[in-house]
Design brief:
Radius of gyration: 21 Å
Number of helices: 15
Order of helices and strands: EHEHHHEHEHEHEHEHEHHEHEEHHH
Shape: globular
Oligomer: single chain
Structural class: alpha/beta
């Protein structure tokens, strides 16, 4: 079976996790790096500021190239991640040229977050207007299913949670030197946002390390906790295996559901303390396989408790890891689901 994936070709990105999963299932797969193609011709006029105003103009080339690649490759299935760069006309044109090809979309964001001033990277009007033209639309949040079906006018909507990729999310041993560099009582790995900054400001008295980008926007006290770099792959696992508590603060748009780190932290055998979202407890039992919090006060209370209880912390960390590796929560499992839907719809 031939599959064409459209999404970032970054080794640690979600599209590449599916790329590897489909290959393991015996599929012939190619990936079209839409994000990389879009930003390839920067020049003098394309930058992050003009991008906000003229993205539709800048996206013309990536639309043409995606159409060309699709027609040339002639896949049985095209899987688009998010679809940020594609106009509805592009999706319709591909369907016209490839009537026997199924077009699926997996949107790892909320497609209705289209406020370009505050949520610009999450979605846009093309994403919403393209929903009806996909044969199947997959979302990570169960709370979005009805809205995508009714407001988005989707043909077929499916719940597809995030997962882990065993090729990049696994426990790793660390040396004493690495523990000193990567380790801390509390580690937060993620991009800066105002809500995350607000919560982390309550933890300035702790041994806290922040890994990720954008934290130069935070106050000076919080910047002193920032390690001034992003973390991926083995380094992510080294932090999970060097630090006592791995904190995951769900962004507001993720709150009714879960995040990628819901699975990635336990997969690396980290002790996960996560915002209490609507679906997270479906995957890991509270206070037995992971720890959750709702308020800054509850967060501090639980941090103080678990920093004093090493044995209990280790027990929960191991239980979360065992739950993960003995459940169907890898991207291989998610890829199988997508192929099952393909088989149902091609009839």
């Amino acid at each position: 079976m031939k599959i064409l994936i459209s999404g970032s070709n970054n080794k640690y990105g979600l599209p590449m996790s599916f790329f590897r999963a489909f290959q393991k299932l015996g599929c012939e797969v190619e990936i079209f790096g839409d994000e990389e193609f879009y930003w390839r011709d920067k020049g003098l006029i394309k930058n992050r500021y003009t991008h906000r105003l003229f993205w539709k103009f800048f996206a013309r080339k990536v639309n043409k190239e995606f159409i060309r690649k699709s027609i040339e490759y002639k896949p049985e299935l095209i899987l688009v991640f998010k679809g940020w760069f594609y106009s509805p006309k592009t999706i319709k044109k591909i369907k016209k040229h490839l009537p026997n090809t199924k077009l699926f979309c997996y949107n790892q964001e909320n497609p209705f977050n289209t406020n370009w001033l505050t949520q610009f990277s999450y979605s846009n009007d093309w994403v919403v207007k393209s929903i009806p033209y996909f044969d199947a639309y997959f979302t990570w949040g169960r709370f979005l299913l009805e809205k995508i079906k009714i407001e988005g006018k989707a043909k077929n909507v499916y719940y597809l949670p995030f997962a882990c990729d065993p090729d990049i999310h696994y426990p790793i041993s660390v040396s004493e030197e690495e523990k000193r560099y990567y380790g801390s009582d509390i580690a937060f790995i993620g991009t800066h946002s105002k809500d995350r900054e607000y919560l982390l400001n309550f933890l300035l008295e702790y041994d806290l390390k922040i890994w990720g980008n954008g934290w130069q926007k935070s106050n000076k006290k919080l910047q002193s906790k920032w390690q001034r770099r992003e973390i991926y792959g083995e380094e992510f696992s080294k932090i999970c295996n060097s630090s006592k508590i791995i904190l995951d603060i769900l962004r507001p748009q993720m709150m009714p559901s879960h995040s990628m780190k819901t699975f990635e932290i336990p997969a690396c055998r980290g002790f996960m303390m996560q915002t209490r979202g609507g679906e997270v407890k479906e995957f890991f039992e509270e206070d037995k396989e992971a720890v959750y919090f709702s308020t800054p006060e509850e967060l501090k209370q639980k941090i103080d408790f678990y920093l004093k209880n090493d044995n209990l912390r280790e027990k929960i960390r191991e239980a979360g890891y065992q739950k993960l590796i003995n459940s169907n929560n890898t991207y291989l499992d998610r890829a199988k689901k997508i192929l099952e839907v393909y088989e149902e719809l091609k009839i």
